[in-house]
Amino acid sequence: MADNQPTPQAVLQQLRRELLAQDSDDEYNRTEIVRYGAFVASVIESHDQLPRAMDHARSLIASSANSGQSMASGTVILADEMSMCKGRFTRSWHAPRGGVWGCMVFANTLLPQWRSFISLTAGVACCEAVREICDIPSSVRWVNDVLFEGRKLAGFLVESYTEPVHREEFALVGFGINVNNTAFPAELAGSATSLGRILGRDIDLSLFTTIFLARLAYNFGILYHEEARDLRGDGFSGKQKRHLLLERWLYLSDTLGKRVRYGFDVMNAPQYLAQAIGLDPSGGLILRLADGSMKIEHSGEIRYLE
User: Fold this and answer.
1) Of 10, 149, 175, 220, which residue has the fewest beta carbons closer than 10 angstroms?
2) d(Cα 276, Cα 280) in Å, to the nearest integer?
3) The whole model's pTM is what?
């Protein structure tokens, strides 16, 4: 039996807390956001062990399609440990007991211009959950790495999948969050940390996962809320009519102003050095090179130089 067993009911109850925070000065409608995002974690599978959650998700999606059904969007697959977990490219991801490992299945019904925001959403949700339950100043590094004092607490990977029968498009939002796991392989020992190591104690894994999934639901709700406002011609909800998700990302991130190394695969093939100076309206990172020229990157990754 799995140890990490949040329930859809607990996630929804946590999500509803957002309704109590509505301020008359808000430019956005929290009720609408909650309604849009409530599909996330409406189904939760908790496993003791899986090789890889995304592979399991693909199998379930294909099986549903072959039986004439569609897998429920928002389904979350969790595993107490994963034996074949991986991050970007061929990088392995250490996923022992004590962490939050899994993925969320998203039937991709967003308009194409907003789909790049999915990656930003995951990092924002995790950083908010860490700050809420642990009260530590975690931050987001573009695109969605969650850090504490320069060490990585969590990472996210979004992979697309088109099921073979009806060609329905899905985005699989993979997550790995170091919670109560405190030992790391030698190659990660200097760059990774966990909440248990930072706090010096274990935290309730199911409670943390519940809060993370509720934050993920709320931020996915923001994507649909802002899309609807844009289609109506109302403008976005953030300050200066900025997209609300970008505003939340900017509040949590420490990337802007940093000197960075950029690359599509920055660990094995770094491409150039620059200073991060902003986000464009689609979430692309605006970089200023040494000669003063500007570049905007919508994919790839960065590492801080200082």
Assistant:
1) 149
2) 11
3) 0.96
Token digits for 83? 């034996």
Mean pLDDT of the chain: 94
Rounded mean pLDDT of 143-169?
96
**How large is the average pLDDT for residues 162-186?**
94
Pairwise CA distance, residues 279 & 286, whole Å? 6
Q: Does the pLDDT value for residue 46 go beyond 70?
A: yes
Distance of CA 190 to the CA centre of its chain: 23
Q: For residues 103 and 64, what is the distance between their CA atoms, to the nearest angstrom?
A: 17
Burial of residue 11 (number of CB atoms within 10 Å: 0-12, 13-18, 19+): buried
- Distances, alpha carbon 114 to alpha carbons 20, 23, 104, 152, 225, in Å: 28, 26, 18, 27, 12
Residues 6+ apart with CB under 8 A from 260: 273, 274, 275, 276, 287, 302, 303, 304, 305
DSSP track, 125-193:
HHHHHHHHHH----EEETTTEEEETTEEEEEEEEEEEE-TTT--EEEEEEEEE-SS-----TTTTTTB-
CA–CA dist 88, 160 (Å, integer): 13
